Amino acid sequence: MDARIWVLHSLFLHSKSLKSAVYFTRMARPKVKCSGAARGCRHQIMLWEKKIQLAKEMRASVDSETGQTEIRAMKAEIHRMKVKHEQLLKHQERMIRDMELAVARRETITTRAEGHSKTDKQFLTRTDFHHKQTELRRKIRDVHKATEACTTTISELEEMQKRVSDHLVEKQAQLAAAQSRTEELDADLDQLMALKRQNLSELVALQTRQKHLQAVKDGRYVFLYRSKDSLLVEHARMHNWLATVGAILDHVQDEYPQFQEVLLKVRQTIASKLESLGPS
User: Fold this and answer.
1) Which among 30, 56, 213, 241 could disulfide-bond with 98, CB atoms 3.0 to 4.6 Å apart, if both were Cys?
2) What pTM did the predictor assign?
3) Hey, is 4 helix, strand or coil?
4) Is the CB of residue 88 less than 8 Å from the CB of residue 45?
5) Is residue 170 part of a domain?
6) Is residue 238 domain-shared with residue 267, that is, in the same domain?
């Protein structure tokens, strides 16, 4: 008996949940949720069929003389469930018809729009226009974002260019100062090298002279020119030869200015020799 009461109580609770489901199903919009509601109703119908079958089996197993009150309550509940089952079937059929009508209406609208688009290329439906307008707005928004990003990047690059330009100007000033200093050092180096060569020449001349004087002192020096006249003749010949070489170097320097720096040292050496020899 307790089992039957528990089954009846559970059937009563399930009937309440079914009422709530049917109520919320009716409140939902059929065009959007017809398919989901139909599946839910089909599931509920299958559950109720199982529960009705279970109730019939329990009714057949219950003794006819005992529990008449509970049996009558169960019969009433079973009748009520059958009625609810029929209502659910009707509601399912109605939702299926609504869904079929909605699909047919949608296909009709689509076919009509395709026909218009084939006959008139300039014809746009409201949906197409809305889609194109949304797409254009999205593209405009993307272009604005890209423009802002490019503007920011350009500003950053301009600032970087300004910093690099300032740094370059500073480095150029430092380079110019370094080049000027290098030119000064090169000029000083050239002067020192010329002085070194001059000193070296003088040193060699003095060493040669010392050697000759030592030979004279020791009585081993052999005079190249025994007379003063022959010495003067050789002196004049050497002076003329150096003068001729100096004139040739001057002419070469005028004709080939690119060798002027190299020939200048030789010309200075010849000039110093001429000065040491004195007038012819």
Assistant:
1) 30
2) 0.32
3) helix
4) yes
5) no
6) yes
